[in-house]
Design goal:
The structure holds two protein chains of two kinds. By secondary structure, chain A is mostly helical. Chain A has 15 helices and no strands. Chain B has a six-stranded mixed sheet with strand order 5-6-7-3-8-9, sandwiched between helices. A three-stranded antiparallel sheet of chain B has the order 2-1-4. The chains are: A mainly alpha, B alpha/beta.
Chain lengths: 312, 253
């Protein structure tokens, strides 16, 4: 029954090392196998025992989309913004990805107490895994979004839009990881944080132009350029605008414009009117910021890391 | 001989009151009571272990055994001093860690083995051994949440004792599992010891320490109280007085 382990006495050539020196985001990469298992476990665990399984990942966003469509497209009659439901849903996909990475990441170390307090794995792995799980669940939402776009009949995707979507996802991926990494460690030492994060993430959807159009922001803040700048300093604002450039903007054809403007000019079909100036420059600046912020988050994590096991 | 573990002047201090609300802290301050209170879990602990040695780590509850093991595992870092090890440390320390009640036995074996530091290929190679050792039969494809508590812990032990490592740490009294399973575990640990792996065995049972280890380290309130031959260590702890009824359970852990 037992095939004995080939003895590993031959350790003379191996150096003595510090067993606690395991952390760091770069080390997460060397634990890819464990990371993959953890992500797979979380994905499977979410729908285990349910009859529809992964179908729920499609049902939920579909229902959400139809709710938006019903409320904003039919009841509120936001006729002056064509395809407002897509405008909102596109933003929702990216904001959701961020808030999920952030929320689940913040809880991740506490949730994996049993492992964290017993085995020396790079502890950054847990928030990273949470981010990857969130990314995975974004897939079905994107599928629903694309189907909704195709259903408009006027969807004309372009390469610029594709680039915008990719850029938005990269920025949110970096930011979500950074927030998850930083707050997962702080959360162990300061448990109130989970609640604070929940409150913050509830505010987030209102702070980006998806439930209202960007044109409204530009209009209201015309007299207050500082506020306008502050509004655009939120990296998620750029990400939402990028994703809208990719999916919502490309569904607006001449007939949509004519339809919106049939009772007078309410919708300006000009890119410059619907998106802020220098959107691309701003977005690349945000990409740089997100990278720096990830490094900062890693630095914070490293400083707190040693105190995590004793505080669990 | 090759040094396997080197613990050098290690100290670790914990604070006693971590989770207090602001209100409690304010009240304590107003009453001029201490708001901070620390205790030394480990005080200036030093020793060296050669590759292949079998060490029994003994001491009363709260004497710092688990903290020391966590420092050796690398989960905790000492406040002062250094710990250095050679090779991979693993063992009966995180049995069942990462087990998800709704995943099957097989899935949990892979997960737990990965947490213990094994690669996919290593787990693959050892899978049959692990499954045979756990002896849960057809339940391997059943979610572990449906296991009896004995089966659950058997599965955890099965993975842990089959981990391929250079330093084997056993920090859990085999209080679970039935008598035949306990015997099987002891036999397996002896096998591990005899294969040249450094064994670090924590136990309160004089009998099993005597059987497993030639050297005993006794911790007393965070300090090394004794470090030497197993028999002398057990006498030092005055555990041998109980050995009469201990020997009745000689096969016990």
């Amino acid at each position: 029954m037992t095939t004995t382990v080939p003895p590993r006495h031959d350790l003379a050539h191996e150096p003595l090392r510090d067993p606690g020196d395991t952390g760091g985001l770069h080390r997460v990469l060397s634990h890819r196998y464990l990371l993959r298992l953890m992500v797979r476990r979380e994905i499977k665990a979410r729908y285990v025992g349910s009859k529809f399984g992964l179908a729920w990942s499609y049902i939920n966003p579909t229902v959400r989309f139809f709710t938006f469509y019903f409320v904003f497209g039919i009841i509120l009659q936001r006729g002056n913004i064509p395809h407002f439901a897509i405008h909102l849903f596109a933003g929702m996909v990216i904001v959701h990805f961020f808030t999920e990475s952030f929320n689940a990441g913040t809880r991740s170390i506490m949730a994996n107490k049993a492992v964290v307090s017993k085995m020396p794995v790079p502890r950054e792995m847990f928030p990273v895994a949470s981010m990857l799980v969130s990314l995975y669940h974004t897939g079905p939402q994107l599928v629903v979004l694309v189907i909704a776009c195709l259903a408009t009949g006027s969807f004309a995707p372009d390469l610029v839009g594709l680039g915008a979507a990719v850029l938005a996802f990269v920025i949110v991926l970096l930011l979500g990881t950074a927030m998850g990494v930083m707050f997962s460690a702080i959360n162990v030492l300061f448990r109130d944080l989970t609640r604070i994060v929940q409150t913050l993430t509830q505010m987030l959807p209102f702070s980006v132009p998806m439930m209202y159009p960007y044109t409204l922001v530009a209009d209201r803040f015309r007299e207050f350029p500082t506020l306008h700048h502050l509004y655009l300093f939120n990296p998620l604002t750029e990400c939402v605008l990028l994703i809208q450039r990719a999916f919502w903007w490309t569904t607006i054809g001449p007939s949509e414009v004519a339809d919106a403007n049939r009772d007078g000019p309410v919708f300006n079909p000009d890119v410059a009117a619907n998106f802020p100036d220098h959107l691309w420059q701003r977005s690349f600046a945000m990409l740089g910021f997100a990278l720096l912020f990830l490094l900062f988050a890693q630095w914070v994590f490293r400083r707190l890391d040693d105190r995590i096991p004793e505080r669990l | 001989m090759v040094t396997s573990i080197e613990v050098d002047n290690v100290s670790k201090t914990f604070s006693r009151h971590y989770t207090r609300t602001l209100q409690q802290i304010m009240v304590a301050k107003a009453k001029r009571k201490k708001t901070r209170d620390t205790f030394d879990a480990l005080k200036d602990v030093s020793f060296t272990v050669e590759q292949g040695e079998a060490i029994g780590l003994m001491g009363l509850n709260g004497s710092g055994k688990s903290t020391l093991l966590k420092c050796i595992m690398g989960v905790m870092r000492p406040d002062e001093g250094t710990v250095r090890v050679r090779g991979r440390a693993s063992g009966l320390i995180a049995t069942g860690a990462g087990f998800h009640p709704q995943m099957t036995g097989t899935e949990n074996i892979y997960m737990n083995a990965a947490i213990l530091g094994m690669t996919a290929a290593e787990t693959e190679a050892k899978f049959d051994d692990i499954a045979a050792f756990a002896d849960v039969g057809e339940f391997l494809d059943t979610p572990v949440g449906n296991y009896s508590s004995g089966m659950f812990s058997r599965l955890g032990f099965a993975v842990a004792v089959n981990v391929d490592c250079d330093i084997f740490i056993a920090d859990e009294v085999l209080a679970v599992g039935d008598q035949p399973f306990k015997k099987k575990c002891m036999k397996k640990m002896e096998e591990v010891r005899d294969s040249g792996v450094t064994l670090f065995y924590v136990s309160h049972s004089a009998g099993s320490v005597r059987k497993m280890c030639e050297r005993v380290i006794v911790l007393e309130k965070g300090e090394v109280g004794f470090d030497g031959k197993a028999g002398a260590g057990i006498r030092y702890l005055k555990y041998d007085e109980d050995e009469d009824n201990d020997s009745a359970n000689a096969n016990d852990i």
